[in-house]
Design a protein that fits this description.
Blueprint: H1 7-17, E1 28-29, E2 57-58, H2 60-82, H3 89-102, H4 104-108, H5 111-117, H6 121-127, E3 133-134, E4 137-138, H7 140-153
Length: 157
């Protein structure tokens, strides 16, 4: 069975990614990473990649389309990393949100994933708070996001 991200996970990602840097005409400008002040450049609902750099401009439709592709890709990768390990929908959604923000490589090597796969859900939940830094600095927005992800992870069903 393939896991899919649910509405709560999608809403959490969109809440914290936002669609920043909206122009008066409604289009969106790419912006630098808040932690580095440069790469990776981001646009829309937190989309990054080699096609996004300073000067990239998208419509809302482009941002929405890319979000659908990105969230599907991240969910599929997180699902593959979890294999057959027992995972509640809230846990899955929270881990997809985390991976979407920190990157699949960081998520794949995380203690959070290792603890979850070992069935130590309490220990895994505590790990969300460790991912609140960018370029070595604690960012209040990341601290809030990690608390929201943990709350989603800890939902009973």
């Amino acid at each position: 069975m393939t896991r899919r991200i649910g509405p709560k996970g999608r809403a959490l990602i969109q809440q914290f990614e936002g669609c920043a840097k909206r122009r008066a005409d409604g289009r969106l400008d790419a912006y630098p990473d808040p932690g580095t002040g440069g790469d990776p450049w981001t646009i829309g609902w937190g989309s990054t990649g080699p096609d996004i750099r300073r000067g990239t401009v998208w419509t809302q439709a482009q941002a929405d389309e890319r979000f659908e592709a990105d969230v599907h890709r991240f969910a599929a990768k997180v699902d593959a990393l979890l294999g057959d390990d027992p995972t509640k929908p809230g846990q899955f959604d929270a881990m997809v949100s985390l991976a979407y923000n920190i990157g699949l490589g960081n998520f794949a090597s995380s203690t959070l994933l290792r603890l979850h796969r070992a069935g130590n859900f309490e220990g895994a939940a505590a790990q969300f708070a460790r991912w609140n830094k960018a370029a070595g600095r604690v960012l209040p927005g990341l601290t809030k996001r990690r608390a929201a992800e943990r709350a989603l992870y800890e939902l009973p069903a």
